[in-house]
Description:
Subcellular location: Membrane
Oligomer: single chain
Membrane topology: Multi-pass membrane protein
InterPro entries: UNC-50
Order of helices and strands: HHHHHHHHHH
Number of domains: 1
Strand content: under 5%
Helix content: over 70%
Pfam family, one: UNC-50
Keywords: Membrane, Transmembrane, Transmembrane helix
Largest sheet: none
Radius of gyration: 25 Å
Amino acid sequence: MLSSVIIAKSSPPNSPNGSRPTSPNPMLENRHTAQAKRRKFMRRILMFRQMDFEVAMWQMLYLLVAPQKVYRNFQYSKQTKDQWARDDPAFLVLLSICLGASSVGFAIVLRLGFLQFLKFLLWVVFVDCIGVGLLIATILWFVANRYLRVSVPIRQDVEWGFAFDVHLNAFFPLLIILHVVQLFLYIPLIDGNGFLSTLLGNTLWLIAITYYIYVTFLGYSALPFLKRTVAFLYPPCLIVLCLYVITLIANWNITRNVMFFYEYRVLQY
Length: 269
């Protein structure tokens, strides 16, 4: 009788044989956690009073002068909030404002009407920034998790939200170089058929894309469970440099052709 009572007390609830209940699927738990993070982010995207615009502006400034410091902030976020991705949409809101302001400049240079300006703005935000960003972030997220992750006792994965944040971080300096600096130089210096115009315009593209690659590399190299992250730095930079030399030899002005493409897609679609 005593032994049966001891067995009954030692057996967990809903376990008639005294066996331990099966633990939930860890992949399912991670998926639910990611979904909860996305819902929290989307709920806050219209709550401007809860956004920390001061930190977002600080990040934008340092992305231009010392991007390493920005990713230290991401490491602090991992330690305090247990996630690498941003939980505050303030950076995305400020980036959208910058895209809108720079689009006004393009509308002036290209002499676009109001409806054409709105169409151009939608293209820049939802195609050039978000659409291309979704593609790049997904590819790099897959490559990092599949080929660059270090085998550790506790499995750690690259968060897709962090991969998209890395794209946004890298996109901001590119935006400043190509949509602000280049725009001021376009009419007086770049919009010409000569080699110097091609050299200046293409060099700005080289700087912008190389800086995008560098900030992207810094983002993934900040993750302690990834190895060989230089694969995101040297091969892309080599390809971009080769294309840069080819465009100079062919005297193909990237900026002028991009402007023609912008004007064409706004007027035609």
